[in-house]
Amino acid sequence: MRRPILIAVSVAAAGLALSACEKQIKAPFEKGVCFHVATNKDKTLRFNPVERNVPSMEQCAATLEGMRIRFLRMGSPNRSLTGSYQGSFIFVEKQGIYLGQSYDGARFMSLVRTGDGRLAVPGAIRQVPAQ
């Protein structure tokens, strides 16, 4: 009875140990540099500097959003774009802008799109119920 439980616990512990050893992709930390992240054919990431002397992550996100819009106007089928700023990843998506400390890890919402497509802080715009 104890043996199957012990084996199951051992297998689970080995799986957790292997997943902890998996190397996470980190963004470069260059002060004030906003990067566009592109995926190479071999699935590695390439960090292309877009703008230097960027004062904040929000400014970098705005730069990436402008880049995304220009790509869409040129006919690009991609609706999302990934960038990085000072060691953090910026994910510009259809729903808004998300931030993350690693490429494959958790993402946290930073800005949401309003009804007309602009970006705003979540909860900043309140909807008035129809009367």
Summarize the structure in words.
- The protein is α+β, with helices and mostly antiparallel strands and 131 residues long.
- The chain has one domain.
- Helix content is 28%, strand content 27%.
- It contains two helices and seven strands; from the N terminus they run αββαβββββ.
- It has a seven-stranded antiparallel beta sheet, covered by helices on one side.
- β1 and β2 form a beta hairpin.
- It is globular, with a radius of gyration of 20 Å.
- It starts with a helix and ends in an 11-residue tail after the last strand.
- About 5% of the residues have low confidence.
Concise summary:
The protein is an alpha+beta fold and 131 residues long. It has helices at residues 2-21, 57-73, and strands spanning 34-39, 45-51, 81-85, 88-92, 96-100, 108-113, 119-120. It has two helices and seven strands.
Descriptors:
single chain, 131 residues, alpha+beta, 2 helices, 28% helix, globular
Number of strands: 7
- Major sheet: order of its strands? 2-1-3-4-5-6-7
Determine the strand fraction and express it as a percent band.
25-35%
Mean pLDDT: 82
- Gross geometry: globular
**In this structure, how is the largest beta sheet organized?**
7 strands, antiparallel
Helix content: 25-40%
Counting structural domains, the number is 1
Query: What is the H-and-E element order?
Result: HEEHEEEEE
Total helix count? 2
Poorly predicted ranges (pLDDT <50, ≥5 residues)?
A: 6-11
What value does the Rg take, in angstroms? 20 Å
- Terminus-to-terminus distance: 65 Å
Pairing-aware structural class of the strands and helices?
alpha+beta
